[in-house]
Amino acid sequence: MSNELIQTNTAKLTAAFATALVVAETQIHDDLAYNSIKEWDSTAHMLLIAELENVFNLMLDTDDIIDMSSVAKAKAILGKYGVAF
Amino acid sequence: MQQASQMWHTDEVSAFNVQLKPLQQDDLAQVLIWRNSPEVSSQMLDQTEISPERQQSWFERISSDRRQMQFVIYYKNQKVGVCNLKSPTALAVAECDSLDTGFYLGEAKYRGTILAFFAALALNQYAFEQLGAKLLKAQVKSSNSAALRFNQQLGYQADAAQPSEQMVAMTLVPQAHQNAAAKFATFIRN
After folding, report:
1. Mutual orientation of helices B174-185 and B114-125 as an angle, nearest 10°?
2. Which of A40, A41, A58, A62 is the best mutation test for B, with the most CBs of B within 10 A?
3. Is A85 part of any domain?
4. For the residues B118-146, what does the mean pLDDT come to?
5. Rounded to an integer, what distance in angstroms lies between the CA atom of residue B179 and that of residue B118?
6. pLDDT exceeding 90 applies to what percent of chain B?
């Protein structure tokens, strides 16, 4: 896996989070967790899932939607679908 | 006297990726653990520790009470929580236009997740479409901002008149439920 692709995926993930949560990209880091900021509530979570599915062109399993509780977890879950970080 | 082994109602609800099954005697031990956990009991009006004997007595009293339906929520064949529908009047649940709803997820890993919405949507849909309810009512502690937001996402609106400063009474109408269900439909997966 090339570093370039990994950087691209990281940038896409960061942009997807920033778009869905309506926060600055600088706020997106691995430790950012669901419900830890007011912007990442249940509604934003649904928007986030839709954004990630659109950006990476995949459909997440219900378990993975439920389990996506932080940025780090999102990376791990997307990794199962072949998206490298 | 013979002990009741299950609720009087028999409908099983399968919708929004979850199943709702009538509460049975075999569920009581698990439900008691959930109900006495600090995370759940702290959001209840009655926060005292409930003994197995008291729970058994409650179950025997309500299992034939047609003014209420008690369900266990299942996700992928695992028990994850409890929900109920109650008539606020002397009428049976099926005869009452306005029903009170109650709900909690006992399994910590699912609290605050989209699964909570699925379970609540399944309960609300059953009440409106199968029982013919016209209104669903919920009461939430005013300090429980997560539950207030949760109910708003389900389409509930706070009532104009409130019972007390500690509690927020909320009402859900069928159209608002349908709007909420449509919003979540994208995330229903097989």
Report:
1. 140
2. A62
3. no
4. 93
5. 14
6. 70
Q: What is the pLDDT of residues B9-35, one digit of tens each?
A: 999 999 999 999 999 999 999 999 999
Report d(CA B126, CA B39) in Å as an integer: 27
Residues pairing with B20 in the sheet: B13, B73
Q: Is B115 on the interface with A (CB under 8 A)?
A: yes
Given a cut of 70, whether residue B114 has pLDDT beyond it is yes
Round to whole Å and give the CA distance between B136 and B130.
Answer: 13
Domain count, chain A: 1
> What are chain B's domains?
13-185 (3.40.630.30)
The token duo for B189 is 């997966």
> Beta-carbon neighbour count of residue B134 at 10 Å?
12
Mean of pLDDT over chain B:
92
CB contact under 8 A, B149 and A41: yes
Residues spanned by the domain of A16: 3-80
Residue that has been written with the tokens 């995926």 in this structure: A9
- B142-151: per-residue pLDDT in tens? 988 878 888 9
Interface contact B114-A42, CB threshold 8 A: yes
Instruction: Give the minimum alpha-carbon distance from A4 to chain B in angstroms, rounded to a whole number.
Output: 32
| Residue B172 DSSP one-character state | E
For residue A45, the domain's CATH number is: 1.10.1200.10
CA-atom Rg of chain B in angstroms: 16
Q: Would you call A72 an interface residue with chain B, using a CB distance cutoff of 8 Å?
A: no
Helices A42-56 and A71-80: crossing angle in degrees, nearest 10, is 40
What number is the ipTM of this complex?
Answer: 0.70
Q: What is the model's pLDDT at position B133?
A: 97
